[in-house]
Specification:
Layout (H helix, E strand, L loop, with lengths): L1 E3 L2 H13 L4 E6 L5 H13 L2 E6 L9 H6 L4 H11 L3 E3 L3 H4 L18 H4 L3 H16 L3 E5 L3 H13 L5 E5 L19 H6 L2 H12 L5 H13 L4 E10 L15 E9 L2 E8 L2
Parallel strand pairs: 1-4, 2-3, 2-5, 3-4, 5-6
Antiparallel strand pairs: 7-8, 8-9
Helix pairs in contact: 7-8, 10-11
C-alpha cells in the first residue's frame, strides 16, 4: 500500500493511476478504523480498479475541543487493517498540510445543516464540507463511499457535490452494526464494559419506532422513544426526531413524505452516540 503524506505526492501518484485508465474509489476517514470502514473499502474494491482512503482527524469539524483531544488515534493498527484488506493508497496528511492558512470558507446548505446534528453542533457541517471538498480535489475520485450512520453528513455531501458540479459519484452504504445492533463507531472504544452493555438499547428503540410508524402520531413515537431511552440512568437523550429522509425537515404527519427516518443522539457516560433508521 502506498502511503502519501503530502498533497503534491498524492496528486502525482494518482495522476499516473488515472492516466492508466483505472477508476479510483475513495473512502475518507478520521482513523480508528473498524469493520464499518472496512465495509466501505470493500464496497469500493468491488466497483473500482484502485481503492484510496484518507486518515485525517479534521479539527475544524469539532465544535468541542475536548472531543477532538479524546478522539482515538490508532494509526499503526489502521495501516495494518488497510494492508490486510488490500487498500491501494493511504493519504495521511498533517493539519498544516491541509490547512496552511486559516480556513474562511463558508457553505450555505439552507435548512439541511441547521437541524438535528447541525442544531446541536454549530459549524460542524461547514467543517465537514471544507475537508471533503478539499479531499475530493486532491484525490479526484470517480466514486466516494459514505456510511449511512452519518446520514445527515451523507445528505450534505450529496448536496455539496451537486452544487459544485463535482465529478464524483457519492455511494451510500448501509450502517454496519455489531451483533447486538449497536452501530459501529470509532467512539465505541471509549465506552466502559457496563456502558457497552447498555448501548444496544438505542437500536432497539429505533426498531420500536419503525414498528410503530403510521400506527401512532409522529410526535407520540418521538415521546415514546425518548421515554424509553431516558429510562436508563446512564443515557441522556440529546434529540430523537423523525424527519423527511430527503429534506431532514420534521413532518406534520406520515403523509408528508415518501420516506422518513428516525435520527437520534444520545450521551452514554462521557460518549456521544448517534444512530438512525429508515422507517419507510
Amino acid at each position: 500500500m502506498k502511503i502519501c503524506k503530502t498533497i503534491h505526492e498524492t496528486r502525482d501518484y494518482l495522476s499516473n493511476i488515472r492516466k492508466s485508465g483505472k477508476t479510483i474509489g475513495f473512502v475518507p476517514t478520521m482513523g480508528a478504523l473498524h469493520a464499518g470502514h472496512i465495509s466501505l473499502l470493500t464496497a469500493s474494491s468491488l466497483k473500482d480498479d484502485f481503492v484510496a482512503t484518507s486518515i485525517f482527524v479534521n479539527p475544524i469539524q469539532f465544535n468541542n475541543k475536548g472531543d477532538l483531544e479524546k478522539y482515538p488515534r490508532t494509526l499503526e493498527d489502521d495501516i495494518r487493517k488497510l494492508e490486510d484488506m488490500g487498500c491501494d493508497m493511504l493519504f495521511n496528511p498533517d493539519v498544516s498540510e491541509m490547512y496552511p492558512e486559516p480556513v474562511v470558507d463558508k457553505y450555505n446548505f439552507g435548512q439541511l445543516d441547521k437541524v438535528l446534528e447541525g442544531k446541536h453542533r454549530p459549524g460542524h457541517f461547514n467543517g465537514v464540507a471544507v475537508v471533503v471538498r478539499k479531499l475530493f480535489e486532491i484525490i479526484q475520485p470517480h466514486r466516494a463511499y459514505f456510511g449511512m450512520k452519518d446520514y445527515q453528513q451523507l445528505r450534505i455531501i450529496q448536496a455539496m457535490t451537486r452544487e459544485l458540479a463535482m465529478p464524483v459519484e457519492i455511494i451510500p452504504c448501509p450502517t454496519k452494526r455489531e451483533k447486538d445492533g449497536l452501530a459501529m463507531s470509532s467512539r465505541n472504544v471509549r465506552l466502559t464494559n457496563e456502558e457497552r452493555k447498555i448501548a444496544p438499547v438505542i437500536y432497539r428503540v429505533l426498531t420500536g419506532a419503525k414498528e410503530r410508524a403510521r400506527q401512532m402520531s409522529v410526535m407520540d413515537i418521538e415521546q415514546w422513544a425518548i421515554h424509553q431511552l431516558n429510562n436508563y440512568d446512564e443515557l441522556d437523550v440529546e434529540y430523537f426526531e423523525i424527519v423527511n429522509a430527503d429534506t431532514l425537515l420534521r413532518p406534520n404527519n406520515w403523509k408528508d413524505a415518501n420516506s422518513m427516518i428516525a435520527c437520534t443522539a444520545v450521551h452514554l457516560g462521557k460518549v456521544r452516540l448517534i444512530d438512525n433508521l429508515i422507517l419507510f
